[in-house]
# Entry
Amino acid sequence: MDPGKDKEGVPQPSGPPARKKFVIPLDEDEVPPGVAKPLFRSTQSLPTVDTSAQAAPQTYAEYAISQPLEGAGATCPTGSEPLAGETPNQALKPGAKSNSIIVSPRQRGNPVLKFVRNVPWEFGDVIPDYVLGQSTCALFLSLRYHNLHPDYIHGRLQSLGKNFALRVLLVQVDVKDPQQALKELAKMCILADCTLILAWSPEEAGRYLETYKAYEQKPADLLMEKLEQDFVSRVTECLTTVKSVNKTDSQTLLTTFG
# Structure
């Protein structure tokens, strides 16, 4: 065999063998010649992730929901909550009659709702936290939440305006030293023409809401002083207006002098 030919008799080129070029296709965009290819891939086309901190909860109910459950047996508040996909009732105008307490959706998850049992309640698109009557509403505030967000209640009171004649600020005292916070809230209620009610537990707060709604149509006779019409009672009342005379002395005077 001729050393200058291959097995098939084709003459081989003289000199060192030529190198073969291999091209590896890339998924990246082609770079025009003369331009340096970037070392790292651009992140403009990648989806951005919002790393901004979440906003603080706007209500105590949202704050309570964000806290971990106390135990495995903890349950969610029960009541006439709308099912998934349902929308809350339409806004209730001041002066409109309703047999139920209208609860704002922002109060969903508030433990107070578990203890509103003696009167019906339902969710509705209302400005206050609770609409208790035609001219009565209530805002709920936890002192623990108030210490974390002291400006929250200012905006809520301003949003009420003059739509309700009786505006109640129902405060749940759940801190050890509430004196300073209660002093500030009392001053705020005086300036805002608002009634301050204190409750030391969610159960007590629920009872206040029930009572306001149950006595919505009741007259004020229970609060008014009852005047006796008989002669002895009226004379006794007249004599006891003197500081040194009590009811026993008045009975003695009536027995002695008739």
Observations:
- Confidence is low (pLDDT under 50) at residues 69-91.
- The beta strands are 101-103, 121-123, 130-131, 136-142, 166-172, 195-199.
- The helical segments are 60-66, 143-148, 152-160, 179-191, 202-214, 231-239, 247-257.
- The chain is about 25% helix and 10% strand.
